[in-house]
Every structure is written in C-alpha cells, then in structure tokens.
Amino acid sequence: MPPFTTTAAWRSLLEHRDALAGTKLSRMWDDDPGRGEALTFGCAGLAVDLSKQRITPQTVALLAALARERGLPAAIDRMFSGETVNVTEKRAALHTALRGDEHAMVDGTDVRPELQRDHERMRVFTEAVRAGQWKGATGLAFTHVLALGIGGSSLGPQLAIEALHAEADGPEVRFITNIDAAEFDDATEGLDPATTLAVIASKTFTTQETMENALAARQWISSALGEAAIAKHFIASTSNIPAATQWGLPECNIFPFADWVGGRYSLWSSVGLPIAIAVGIARFDRMLAGAHAVDLQFRSDPLERNVPALMGLASVWNRNALGFSSEAVLSYASRLEHLPQYLQQLEMESMGKRVTEDGTPVDFHTCPVVWGGTETPGQHAFHQWLHQGTDTMSCEFIVVAQAMGERTTHHEILLSNACAQSEALMNGVDKGDAARACPGNRPSTTIVLPRLDAYYLGALLACYEHKVFTQATVWGINPFDQFGVELGKTIASEILPAVRGANVPLHAASRHLLDVIRKLAASA
Ligand code: F6P
Predict the structure, then answer these.
(1) Cβ 482 under 6 angstroms from ligand 1
(2) pTM
(3) CB of 239 closer than 6 angstroms to any ligand 1 atom
(4) What are the tens digits of pLDDT across the range 112-122?
C-alpha cells in the first residue's frame, strides 16, 4: 500500500491546513461559538471534546475521508472478525473477544466457548479467594496478593486497581514489576507468607524480570511454609502452559489466555485476575462491559462521529500535518496516576515503528512521545513548559465529572483548574511583557468520564486501544508487534555473565561502563 502521504485525501488535508494556518484557536472560537457542540462527541457515556484542537468541522470531514481512503472500516472488520491483522507474528488481535464480542472466530474456530470457560474459572477462583475459601497452606485466608509481572502483564491491573480504589473490598494487591531487590523488599515488607497469594502474570513465562521475581517469591514463601505450599500460594496467567507447569504449578492454578491477546491488550484476560480479586468479578465484568460498548460503537458509528477513530485521526493531524512530536496525558484524578504510563506502553510500544506492515521504511513520523502526569501537581512542575516552552504539543485532559469522595470543594477546585489550563493553553496571554506572555494556540482534547468506575474505565481504555488502531491503519504500520524491545534483552543476557565476573567478550563501551560501576561500588 502506498504511504498515506500520497493520497488525495492527505493532499486535501494539507491544503486545508495551509488555509487555516493564520487562524488561531481563539479566533476559531470567536468565529464559531457553536464549535463546542459541533466538535464534542459521545462514546459509551464518555464525552470527548475536540473543540480546542486546531480543527474545524471541515477538518473532521477531511480526516474521515482520509480514514476511508486508508480502508479503516474494512480494517476494523478484519480485526474484529479474527483475521491475521498482526501480520509479522501471523496472529489475530482479538482482545475484543474477551469483553463479550459475539463474533469470535479464529482460524475458522469459534473461540467463545473457550473464553467463557476461562472466564468462569476466573470467577470461581477469585470469589473463593475473596470469600476466604481458597486458603493458604496453613489454613488461613489470603489478606494480600503479590502481583508479579511487567509491561502489559502489570500496567493494566495496576491502573485499574488504583482507579477503583474506592471499591477495593478484597485482599490488598501489591505489585512487583522491576528487577530491583528494593522493590521486592518494599512490596513484601510487613506481609505474612501464610496469608499471601502470588500471581505470576507473564504471557511468555520467560520474561527475565518476572521469572526472577517469581523465584524470589517462591523462596520467600517456601522458606516460611515449605515447598509443598507452592501449589496453594501461586497461580499463573499465561499463554505458555508448559512453562508454567514446568515451574511446578498444577493445571488448576494456571489461567491461560490465547496468543492472539497481545501483552498490552491483555488486561481483559486472566491478566486481570488481581483486579477481580481486589474489586470482585462483577466490577471486573463492568470494566469489560464498558470496553465492549466502545467496541460496538467503533464498529458501527460513522467515522465523522466515531470517537476512537477521531481521537486517532486528531493525533495523525497533530503529528503529520502540524508536526507536533509529543502528547501529554494530564489526569485530573489522582486515582488515574498510572494512566500516562499505561498509555505510554499502549501507544509507544504499538506505534514506535519505522517500517510499514510490508517492511517498507516510512517517510513520515509515526508515534509521538506520550508522557504526562497527575494534576494538579503537574501544573506546579511541567506546565510552565506547556505554556511558554518552545515546543508545541497536544494535551489530553482526563476529567471526571462526579466528585470522588465527600469533599466537594476539592472537586470544584480540581474542575476549575482542568478547565482553566486548557483555556490558558488555547488563548495564551499578551500583556506587552515578553517574560509574561504566553503564545497560546496550544491544542488539547478533553475526555470527560461521568464518574470513575469500572465501566467508564473500561470504556476509556478501549477508546485508546482503538485510537491506536486507527493511527496504525492510516500509517500502514503493525501496532501488534514489538520487535524493537528484543535487542536490549539479548545484549543484557550477554552482559550478565560479565557482571557476575566471567571473562566474556563485551563491547568496549559496556566494558568501560562496568568498570566505572565496579569502582564506585568498591568505594561506596
Ligand atoms: O516489553 C516487551 C514485552 O514483551 C511487552 O510487550 C509485554 O507486555 C512485556 O514484555 C511482558 O511480557 P510477558 O507478559 O511475556 O512477561
């Protein structure tokens, strides 16, 4: 497929951009006070306000035309019908089936019965743990869960449990992701092995950090309770059943998910076990329902008001027509603190690509830097850069309409700050004093959740998944592989023996750096 930059639709978009070039966002509002209504769209109860993007209704129409020219509707159908959309790894990408899609065929087989069985096992197990019926080796109920995993096997559960904190009425979940002994020690501090359940989440069951942490947890539990306790205290979420079995887990402790569920799309599978333990399977199911509602709309809404598609198309516009190299995710909700990190993996691992699906190098920019923070603290850290720095970026404001907790004054102040920041970025200020002037014209999207609950969280994350799919389809890249992360892993395995003192061949730069580290370790 030729690059999107050669299409007639893209040429029209560039002409349109040039025509708009002199018109600031503030002027667009003066010219059309109805743009708020015209450019705010609904999806599964979320409101997505694009009226502070440097777009007009005509831009939306032209972007929709670009999506059509790039075959987005057909690509959506292919993904949902289980075709091999992950072409490099020759797999489907059918995470949508986990949230209740009725069309779940892979290689001509209906996978729904298998998914229902897996989900039922998850329900029975998590309810037994929460009710204190699945007990530890000494007969005590579990009060804590150690969730061992990294990347897609950790970020989703971490985000969801944090977001649903108000509804967390099960055992407390602590996460160990990094291969840093301090993290292991901090997470296990104060825990009793007798009342701790460990969940190993790893699609491959080979990830170095997770397997080493699982081994450490195994030693921590078996030294207190004996090796026989392992079958009571460890479960696994994985696609690699033989490896989990070899690790010593009985079949009933292994909760599988299919290889067509990508790691960063696996929150909806048994990787979500810690969520279901923490908040209950009913709330986990509400999260699936919110995501499913978005799936239905992504499949059926016209592109001109298809929220996930428009989110992706706005990003293409900002990246490729306006040249912005970053997107800041600003969560106006403390319980969404992990959202920027979650989206970093979803967007940057999916779209950090430099060749198209058929291996042709691209001649345009793909994924921008995705970063962000929790607000309002971020306002007192990096917003200065947003308002007066030399780069222009697009911001995504995430706002929750309903107050969390009883303190309404807090919520009023939080909301006023969210509105103020996007207005300030848009309008800027010029009082004749260069040091105080803010140029404005800095675009943003605001996504409003009615409240922070499982349903709307599921909807929000599904919107972003399909946003990514939209961008990848326009760019012609595969968002479902991640070969770039392999090189570093390979080199680390070559360096490890040297760290341990073996005389193995190393690149001079790594040898030098190890020497520096050793000298400082010796003098510390
Ligand atoms: O960082 C690469 C990656 O493969 C991610 O895509 C994945 O989410 C993470 O590592 C963890 O992988 P696994 O679930 O196989 O342990």
Answers:
(1) yes
(2) 0.97
(3) no
(4) 999 999 999 99
